[in-house]
From TrEMBL:
Organism: Polioptila caerulea
Gene name linked to the record: ATP8
Subcellular location: Mitochondrion membrane
Recorded family membership: Belongs to the ATPase protein 8 family.
GO biological process, one term: proton motive force-driven ATP synthesis
Name of the featured protein: ATP synthase complex subunit 8
């Protein structure tokens, strides 16, 4: 069964993870966020019950 032979697939998996973690991931993490989180406290709006016309 060729699926049980890990020799070609292990090297492909290892090289792809090394490529991702050493090259691609730092480039992706270096991007600036277009919507950074703000430290403002959320405003709480006053909610009043709806007056239904049929009650």
């Amino acid at each position: 069964m060729p699926q049980l032979n890990p020799s070609p697939w292990f090297f492909i998996m290892l090289s792809s993870w090394l490529t991702f973690s050493l090259i691609i991931q730092p480039k992706v993490l270096a991007f600036l966020s277009t919507n950074p989180p703000s430290s403002k406290t959320p405003t709480i709006s006053d909610t009043s019950p709806w007056t239904w016309p049929w009650t």
